[in-house]
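[recover] target loaded
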């Protein structure tokens, strides 16, 4: 086939795909997209101008023909429309990627950035990072995320500092001071009784709380308070991004790789989300890395850099007792090094503030608890017998399996493990092995990272798990060490495939970040003792009727996991990839890999129906078999049994999941308004099922015999779309529904 005939065939293929998009998207502004793209393809031919670049960039839109295959797996009109939009978005992303590569936009932007003076580059990094954090803060607040996990307890300390001038949080918990920033009836105290009358001191130390205490000098109410707090905390994340970039330059990465490392570190899990949440990890990491930067690159001269490094390092203790695992080794290590080289001045300057802050910390312990034990922060005033019982439990009674599973949970669990949300940090493991192989070259990297590994192993040994917070909380303070060894891998590896993965994996992590900003409930997936659900919500949302990702992903919640096969399979895959990453390989780049990736994403996101199976409620069904009901969005309330309260005119989708086909579905609907009539419209999949007008306080029964269903494997699904509106008023009448299945 000649070049002209081939180009005509490609154009015809693209136009056919765009035509399918135009037909199936239906009326609406989105329908203009394929029309405009078709015009962009046709015009160069009509004007007899070269259109090779345009044709190549528009080729992904030929995937519109795949919509014909999607119709074979039809669920209902809404589901098909959402899947078609996902396909259009997927084609647009690949099209933009091709266009960016052809026009060399990344290279041009990078050259322009690298040509700036250092101060301008640092300012640009800071401003862009902060703007992204402000955007994330706005999205989280707009999506209704209030305070999660430990956040209200840090604010309780801030309120006590600003209003009472002390660290006693009794007023905040037992005199309802917390209601100023959290609209709940009761907030369980995170603290222990101290010395004196009505004195409660928080488990959490006041470093983070001090940075947000000024907000309590103002009368701010949620949600404005939440947004401003998150935007303010983002400033520390932006400063951390600047510091990481400076580290990259000092480590000899070059401007381009230093920027890449900064973006991969700052804009992905866990750093991005902890920068906009009220948790101490980002601020503590900023203090630690600031101290290390001064110690490595500034403290050799005659200035006071060692003193300021000690200030940053020593003050970290007030962000958490756990950070002593960084403070002591780093301080003692540098002091020993300088004493060995007879640099007594630097050693003495470094010791000043760590010793001062440690003395202040022990004074706080004695004043609050009458004890010098750091454990008093968490367990209060323990007598000798209680202390002995605590250490006996910690050292002897916790099984080794629980400690190993906690460590694996930090990295691999589908709910809060780091690597499934940011696989870029997988490269830290082969990087660490390569650093050991080249010990003389990387002995300093290995030594400075020892406190990080000690930090993680200590938490795993105690079996502590993260609660309602973004993924990777206990790995967040050591993310810098993971990044360091990922960079070591990129520098030392001879495996071309995994070196490319170093540049590509952050793209997946960036997508996860964007998705979780849009769907923030996927962030809060604890694996603590009260969590019995294995499924990670993010992967559950990515699943379809034929592909259920949570069933194939590892899980280390606190139950018996010995018979859970995905754990064994996934760990075997991890070890295999680790081995392959260490093997030299110089394979050629395969041109078909991007299209293979496109087909994989299409199969996962677009091909099969995607019913929302989250938040099920179990109810009794026919033959005594249990059924599950999924309602999105959530009703106003659910009452005892299979009954729910709604408030119109919101549309609700009720999905009934059964083990056997139903002979009859009955809905009893009651208008809860005393003055307004209710118009109720029910649709079964795409078919109108019922339309009723209920007078004020009226009730009606809706019945369907042998209703239509969709079958997925051994399950039967019945989906109703329900909408209740006021018959002759703009007010929203309330209505209730009771479900009967036979």
């Amino acid at each position: 086939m000649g070049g002209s005939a081939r180009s005509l065939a490609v154009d015809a293929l693209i136009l056919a795909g765009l035509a399918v998009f135009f037909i199936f998207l239906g009326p609406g502004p989105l329908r203009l997209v394929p029309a405009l793209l078709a015009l962009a393809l046709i015009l160069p031919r009509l004007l007899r101008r070269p259109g090779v670049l345009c044709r190549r960039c528009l080729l992904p839109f030929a995937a519109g023909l795949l919509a014909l295959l999607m119709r074979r797996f039809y669920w209902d009109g809404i589901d098909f429309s959402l899947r078609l939009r996902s396909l259009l978005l997927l084609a647009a992303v690949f099209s933009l990627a091709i266009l960016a590569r052809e026009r060399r936009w990344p290279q041009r932007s990078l050259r322009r950035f690298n040509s700036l003076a250092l101060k301008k580059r640092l300012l640009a990094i800071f401003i862009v990072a902060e703007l992204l954090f402000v955007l994330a803060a706005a999205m989280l607040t707009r999506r209704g995320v209030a305070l999660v996990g430990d956040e209200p307890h840090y604010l309780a300390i801030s309120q006590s500092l600003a209003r009472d001038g002390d660290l006693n949080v009794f007023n905040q918990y037992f005199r309802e001071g917390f209601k100023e920033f959290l609209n709940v009836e009761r907030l369980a105290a995170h603290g222990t009784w101290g010395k004196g009358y009505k004195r409660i001191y928080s488990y959490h130390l006041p470093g983070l709380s001090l940075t947000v205490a000024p907000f309590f000098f103002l009368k701010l109410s949620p949600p404005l308070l939440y947004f401003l707090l998150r935007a303010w905390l983002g400033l520390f994340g932006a400063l951390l991004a600047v510091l990481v970039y400076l580290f990259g330059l000092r480590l000899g990465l070059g401007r381009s790789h230093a920027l890449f490392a900064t973006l991969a570190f700052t804009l992905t899990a866990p750093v991005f989300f902890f920068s906009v949440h009220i948790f101490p990890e980002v601020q503590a990491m900023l203090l630690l890395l600031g101290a290390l930067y001064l110690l490595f690159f500034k403290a050799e001269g005659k200035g006071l850099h060692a003193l300021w490094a000690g200030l940053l390092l020593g003050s970290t203790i007030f962000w958490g007792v756990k950070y002593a695992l960084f403070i002591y080794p780093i301080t003692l290590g540098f002091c020993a090094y300088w004493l060995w080289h007879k640099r007594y001045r630097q050693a003495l300057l470094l010791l000043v503030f760590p010793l001062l802050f440690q003395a202040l910390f022990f004074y706080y312990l004695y004043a609050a608890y009458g004890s010098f034990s750091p454990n008093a922060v968490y367990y209060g005033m323990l007598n000798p017998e209680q202390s002995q019982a605590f250490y006996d439990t910690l050292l002897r009674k916790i099984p080794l399996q629980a400690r190993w599973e906690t460590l694996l949970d930090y990295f691999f669990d589908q709910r809060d493990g780091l690597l499934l949300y940011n696989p870029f940090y997988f490269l830290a493991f082969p990087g660490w092995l390569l650093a050991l192989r080249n010990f003389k070259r990387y002995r300093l990297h290995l030594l400075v990272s020892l406190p990080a590994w000690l930090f993680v192993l200590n938490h795993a040994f105690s079996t502590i798990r993260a609660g309602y917070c973004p993924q990777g909380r206990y790995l967040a303070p050591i993310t810098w060490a993971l990044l360091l060894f990922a960079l070591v891998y990129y520098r030392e590896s001879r495996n071309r495939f995994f070196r490319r993965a170093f540049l590509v994996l952050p793209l997946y992590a960036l997508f996860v970040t964007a998705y979780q900003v849009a769907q923030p409930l996927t962030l809060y997936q604890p694996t603590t003792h009260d969590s019995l659900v294995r499924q990670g919500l993010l992967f559950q949302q990515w699943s379809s009727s034929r592909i259920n990702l949570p069933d194939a992903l590892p899980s280390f919640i606190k139950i018996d996991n010995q018979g859970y096969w995905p754990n064994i399979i996934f760990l075997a895959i991890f070890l295999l990839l680790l081995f392959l990453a260490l093997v030299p390989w110089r394979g050629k780049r395969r041109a078909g890999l991007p299209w293979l990736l496109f087909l994989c994403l299409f199969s996962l996101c677009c091909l099969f129906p995607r019913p929302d199976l989250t938040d099920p409620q179990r109810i009794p069904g026919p033959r005594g078999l249990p059924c599950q009901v999924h309602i999105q969005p959530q009703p106003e309330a659910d009452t005892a049994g299979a009954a729910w309260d709604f408030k119109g005119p919101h549309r609700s989708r009720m999905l009934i999941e059964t083990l056997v086909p139903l002979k009859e579905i009955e809905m009893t609907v009651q208008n809860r308004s005393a003055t307004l009539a209710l118009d109720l419209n029910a649709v079964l999949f795409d078919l109108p099922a019922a339309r009723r007008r209920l007078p004020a306080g009226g009730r009606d029964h809706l019945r369907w015999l042998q209703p239509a269903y969709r079958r997925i494997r051994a399950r039967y699904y019945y989906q109703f779309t329900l909408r209740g509106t006021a018959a002759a008023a703009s007010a929203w009448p309330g209505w209730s529904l009771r479900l009967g299945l036979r």
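[recover] notes: Residues 540 and 550 are 6 Å apart (CA to CA).
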